[in-house]
Amino acid sequence: VEDLKSQLGFLRESEVKDIIEEGKKQAAQIIAEAHTKADEMKKREIEQIRANIGEIEIRELEAAKSEQKRRMMNLKIQLIEAAFAASLDTLKQMVNEQVLIYRNSLESLIVEATSQMTGSQFEVILSSKDAEFVRKKLKRIEQEISTIRNISITLGISNEPLRSIGGVVVRSSDGKQVFNNTLEARLAKVRQENLPEIAKILFEGTDA
Amino acid sequence: VINLSVEDIKELVAKEKENEAELKKAQDEASHIIEEARKEAKAILSDVQVPSYFKTLHEQEIKRVEEKKSTWEMECNRALENLKSKAGENVQKTVDYVIKLIFGA
User: Fold this and answer.
1) pTM of the complete model beyond 0.80
2) CA separation for the pair B58, B84 (Å, rounded)
3) What digits encode the pLDDT tens for the residues A9-22?
4) By mean pLDDT, which of A47-56, A88-97, A130-139, B87-96 is the weakest?
5) What is the tens place of the pLDDT at every residue in A166-185?
6) Does residue A77 sit at the B interface (CB-CB below 8 Å)?
7) Contact at 8 Å (CB) between A183 and B71?
8) Is A4 within 8 Å of chain B by CB?
9) CA-based Rg of chain A, rounded to a whole angstrom?
10) For residue A178, what is the enclosing H or E element?
């Protein structure tokens, strides 16, 4: 009987040990799986955050680049405006000082205007100071235009004041045609036709 | 063949009952161990989103982007200053060119 009891005791101990071991084994597996799953979740979250951060970087830098382009463009426009303002100041100074290049240009400004108009009788509007100078050359200018146009041309000096810093306005005697060859008009034309070359000179030596 | 007395049989039955109780206790203990492991697993999974860790990572990245942006902006400001300076140097040449075009020289 004692042997039997002893055997039963032994079997019980062995079975109890197995049950506890199996429980521990399952518990360890549950924990290990949780760790693995946690690592995967963490990795996914990090990838997600990195992707988001990458987007932030792209967005932030793109915005900064656009802002920089805008600032660069605005500065270029300002500098071009300043260059044209300086050109206008120089023209005013040339007119006030009646420099030779300006005085000599008056004749060609009148010739250029009348050459592109029809009719034979014109009046020239210019400043009183310029009128004084042109009046002396009027006959010669008439002859020059007559030769170019191959008709007899008559020119007169208008008493109307010139609303400009300088240059001329030529008007047909019937008032139907007007050619604005003032310095402001010429400056605007030069700007319109030559802006890329002008900007190239202004920004020479830069990456712009 | 074993000859067992009634007393022996009673003793053996009592022993068997004791065994069953012990086994039941062992099973309860094993279940308890597994249940605790499940709780721990749940805690591990809920701890995955460590805010400070992600916050730090995010802040570091934001700081890096800001630094990069700041460096880039400084370079751009230098480019703007250079543009202004060069245009200042070239303005007279530009005016001369414009005047030349106006008078057709």
Assistant:
1) no
2) 38
3) 788 888 999 999 99
4) A47-56
5) 999 999 999 999 999 999 99
6) no
7) no
8) yes
9) 46
10) strand A178-182
